[in-house]
């Protein structure tokens, strides 16, 4: 059974997309897993890290992005075809990784996102604005993969809830500072509340926190060290405690100046080692996080 994991934080710039792509590449190349990345963010960063701009333009012109998926529901049209829209063999590594697939986003989503909450396909909750993706991403498609990673926009709006609705787990990437960790209890609360509603129509629904991944970590920064220690302490509190947060992944990804070069799709690379091995520490961190990820997703 394919496992679905949403990557969420209320703040941008905390490494959601970088973590999504790195996990996808390590899971496919090092662990021989089959992975689908779904880019739900209108910023389309995961999309442009995994396919080049020409490929994106083609997908967008052919109505093969999640923009069209939502637009169809708004306009009562039927152009979007999920099978045709999933792009196989994506990534800058080796000209594309056969077992890494992408359902791309589009910046055009910005034009429709404010209207998505008005989608009211019929009147049961099962057909609400938060189940649009689920109507297309059938269990059959999910089960073609080991993992489906959903890169969410930096909010808990209705687009993100489409990811939550389908997810077995959510993972929270953070920078160890006040702004990017402040919203963690809000994320927990909101997801818990939404889950109660979803469970009332789908009894097997059971989303769980997978943990917190610390990215862009600066050992020299007192703020980073203190925030990390605070997160670790809070992760040990009882779940009912308002201050409690999900478990913190053991290894952190350090801040490095080289990572943004490695995210350029037009820089063709042959191996995982070449892409991430500019720093053995970064490579080891992603490898460790991937191992911990596999252990936690059961
Ligand atoms: N470990 C890191 N060190 C330095 N820069 C990083 C690191 N991880 C990510 N970045 C950079 O930080 C920026 C934000 O990361 P991104 O993954 O796009 O965040 P989000 O998806 O949460 O907005 C990007 O420019 C990315 O290249
Ligand atoms: Mg992003």
UniProtKB/TrEMBL annotation:
InterPro entries referenced in this protein's UniProt entry, alphabetically: AAA_dom, DNA_Partitioning_ATPase, P-loop_NTPase
Any Pfam family: AAA_31
Residues of the AAA domain: 3-199
Taxonomy, superkingdom: Bacteria
Protein name (record): AAA family ATPase
Record organism: Clostridium algidicarnis
């Amino acid at each position: 059974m394919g496992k679905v994991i949403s990557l969420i934080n209320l703040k941008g710039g905390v490494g959601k997309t970088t973590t999504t792509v790195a996990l996808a590449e390590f899971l496919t190349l090092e662990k021989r897993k089959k992975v689908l990345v779904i880019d739900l963010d209108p910023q389309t960063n995961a999309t442009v890290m995994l396919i080049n701009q020409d490929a994106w333009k083609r997908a967008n012109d052919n109505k093969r992005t999640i923009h069209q998926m939502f637009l169809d529901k708004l306009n009562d049209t039927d152009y979007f075809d999920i099978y045709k829209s999933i792009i196989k063999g994506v990534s800058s590594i080796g000209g594309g990784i056969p077992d890494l697939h992408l359902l791309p986003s589009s910046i055009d989503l910005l034009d429709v996102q404010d209207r998505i909450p008005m989608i009211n396909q019929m009147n049961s909750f099962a057909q609400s604005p938060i189940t649009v993706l689920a109507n297309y991403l059938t269990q059959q498609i999910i089960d073609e993969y080991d993992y489906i990673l959903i890169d969410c926009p930096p909010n808990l709006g209705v687009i993100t809830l489409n990811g939550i609705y389908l997810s077995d787990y959510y993972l929270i990437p953070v920078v160890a500072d006040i702004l990017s960790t402040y919203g963690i209890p809000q994320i927990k609360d909101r997801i818990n509340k939404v889950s109660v509603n979803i469970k009332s129509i789908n009894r097997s629904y059971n989303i769980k926190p997978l943990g917190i991944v610390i990215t862009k970590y600066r050992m020299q920064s007192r703020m980073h060290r203190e925030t990390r220690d605070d997160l670790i302490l809070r992760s040990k509190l009882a779940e009912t405690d308002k201050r409690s947060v999900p478990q913190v992944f053991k290894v952190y990804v350090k801040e490095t100046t080289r990572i943004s070069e490695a995210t350029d799709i037009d820089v063709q690379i042959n191996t995982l080692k070449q892409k991430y091995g500019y720093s053995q520490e970064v490579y080891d961190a992603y490898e460790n996080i991937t191992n911990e990820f596999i252990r936690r997703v059961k």
